[in-house]
C-alpha cells in the first residue's frame, strides 16, 4: 500500500477528536485541540490537523464556519462551532500528508473587523445590540437572561470603534455577563453557537452533569482531580459621582460598601468621577454593578479535571471533597481545554487523552464584568452643521440648546433627529442674565466634548464656510467689527451693530430693521463733539413727565417745510411762509400777517379779527380798559354799551361834531344841528334856533 493509498483510508470515525470543514468529510483529520472558553471573553481554539491535501487555499477555509467534536464517555460527542480566523500550512509529514493549524473563533469575533461612527438615540442597550446583529444577519443571540430594568440611553455614540469593542463596552457598562452556548446541529445541519447575555446568577444553566465528584486517586473521566480556592483583596467601598446640568446644586454621588467578608478592607475606598448617570436610581445601579465586578473576583476556585462536559456559564455541585465546606454549588467562568489524539501517527500505541483547567465561582455570585474596554475619546474640537425640522430656521429648547449633524455620521438624516440637544457656550451668563446667541440651521459650529466623551458634545463656537460667509466683505472691510443678525423667517432684513476702526474714518453703526427700544432707569448723558442730526420719516414724539430743558449758546431752529421756530439772541420768532410771523423780543410782541389775524377763545363766540377791512371784536361781553386800572372803560354786552371815565368822555366826528362829558358837565356841538329824541319828545338846535316838541313842555 502506497502512502497515498494509506492516506485515503484514514477517517475520523470513532476517534477522540473530529472536525468538519467546507472542504468535505475527513479532508482534515483533527489530531490536537487546545483552546479557552471564558465568560465575558471570546473563545479561541487552536486545532492541529493533518490532511492528504497539501494545497489548501485560504479562500476555501478562512472566514468560513467549521465545527469540531470531542468524544464523551459512552460514545456521545460534544460539539463546538466557530469561524476560521487563521489557517497555517505547516510541514509535510512522512506519511504523504501535510500538517495544518486552524484557529477558530466565535462569529462575534468577526465584528472586530468592522468599525463605524454612528449615533443611537433613545434606545436600550439590548435594542442597540440587536440592531447591530440584525444588520449583520446574526440571530444566534439569547437575551432571556436579562431580567432587570432596561433603561433607554438618551444618546450613545460609536466613534471609530470596531463593532466588537463597541459591543464589549456596552455590555460592560450595563454589567451584563455573556458567554457562548454551543448547540449541536440537527441531522444534516451544522451546529451553532449562541451568544447568551445575562444580568444575574439566575442565568447560570444547569450542567449536563449536575454534580461532579472530587477525586485524586482512581479518578474516572468525570472527576475533578485538583481543587484550590483563592480569596483576593478588594476595596471596602466604591463611590461614583457625576454631574447633571439640570440639577447643578445637587451633584449626583452614590457609594456602595462591599459585602465581601474582609474586615481589613473597610478603610479602602475607590472614588470614581464620571459615572455616566443623571439621577439617583441610575447612580445606585451603576455603583452597585461596579462593586459587584470587584466582588466577582473575590472568591474563585482553580481546578483541574478530565470531565469533558465542563463549560462556561453552567453550574454544578461539587461532591466528595474532604473539606465539607467545599461541597457546594459553583458556576464555571472559564475553561482551558487540552485534547490530543496521536493514533494517526503513533506507532507506540499511546491512547488519546483530554484534560482541562477551569475557574469557578460560588453559584450565588452575580458575575459582573469589569469595565476594561475604554470609552473612545475625541480630543480637540470638530465641526458640525446645525439642523432642525423642515421649514424652520431656528430650532432650540428652553436651555438654548441646538441639534447638529456631524460630518462623520453617514446615517444622518439632516434634521432634528441627527443628534441629542447640545448646549451652546456663551460669553457670559447667570440667573436669567448674560449673553445669548443661538446658532441657526445651516450654520457650521465648533463642537468640543466634555472630558473627550463622544456622548457629551457641546458647541463652543461658529465658523464661516462657503455657504455661510462672514457678514462683511473681506478683506476690504478688515478694519470693521460687526454683529449682524438676519430676520427670521425669510432673512429679508437684519439688525446690526458694527465698529469701523479705520484711522480717520472711525464709526459706530447701529441698524434696526424695525423698532429700536432704549430703557434708562436713571440718567442718560449724551455728549456730541460736533453736529447732531435726527431725521424721522413720519412722527417724532417725546414725552417728558416733569420738565425738559434744551440749552445752547447759539441758535435753535425747529423747521417743517415753510414753518419755522427760531430762538436766537434777539428773541423768539415763529414764522410760516413769507408773510406771517410772531416775534417776541425785548421790544415786545409783534404779530405780522399779510392776510387775516385772529385771536379766538374757545369756539367762535369770543374773538378779535384784524383784516384789510378793519378790526372786528366779538364776545359775550367786550370791555376796553385804558391803563388797566378801571378808570377809563368801554363795556359792551347784551344789555348795552357803557362808557366810563373818571376825567373826560368825548365822542367826535371830524372836527365839527362832538359830545364831551367831564366833571363840569356835558357839551354837545354839531356843524349844522343838534337833535335829542326821547319817547316822542324832541329838542333840536340849529341855525334857526331851538325847537322843543312833546306832549308837555316845562320851562323853569
What does this structure look like?
The protein has four helices and 45 strands. With 700 residues, it is mainly β. Among the domains are: 3-108, Pnp Oxidase, Chain A (Roll); 237-295; 377-429 and 436-467, Gp5 N-terminal domain (OB fold (Dihydrolipoamide Acetyltransferase, E2P)). The longest helix is centred in the middle third of the chain and has 16 residues, at 280-295.
Average predicted confidence as pLDDT: 89
CATH architecture of the domain at 3-108: Roll
Say how many strands there are.
45
Strand content: 35-45%
CATH topology of the domain at 3-108: Pnp Oxidase, Chain A
Give the C-alpha Rg.
Answer: 55 Å
Residue windows where pLDDT falls under 50 for at least 5 positions:
none
Q: What's the short version?
A:
Keywords: Secreted. This protein has 700 residues and is mainly β.
Which helices and strands appear, and what pairs or packs with what?
Layout: H1 3-9, E1 17-20, E2 28-38, E3 41-51, E4 65-71, E5 77-92, E6 98-105, E7 115-123, H2 125-135, E8 141-145, E9 153-162, H3 163-174, E10 177-183, E11 192-198, E12 205-213, E13 224-231, E14 237-242, E15 252-257, E16 269-273, H4 280-295, E17 299-305, E18 314-319, E19 329-340, E20 353-362, E21 381-387, E22 403-405, E23 423-424, E24 444-449, E25 457-463, E26 480-484, E27 496-500, E28 507-511, E29 556-560, E30 563-568, E31 571-576, E32 580-585, E33 588-593, E34 597-601, E35 606-611, E36 614-618, E37 622-626, E38 632-637, E39 640-645, E40 649-653, E41 657-662, E42 665-669, E43 673-678, E44 681-686, E45 689-693
Parallel strand pairs: 8-11, 12-18, 14-16, 23-25
Antiparallel strand pairs: 1-4, 2-3, 2-19, 3-6, 4-5, 5-6, 7-9, 10-11, 13-17, 14-15, 17-20, 18-19, 19-20, 21-22, 21-24, 24-25, 26-27, 27-28, 29-30, 30-31, 31-32, 32-33, 34-35, 35-36, 37-38, 38-39, 40-41, 41-42, 43-44, 44-45
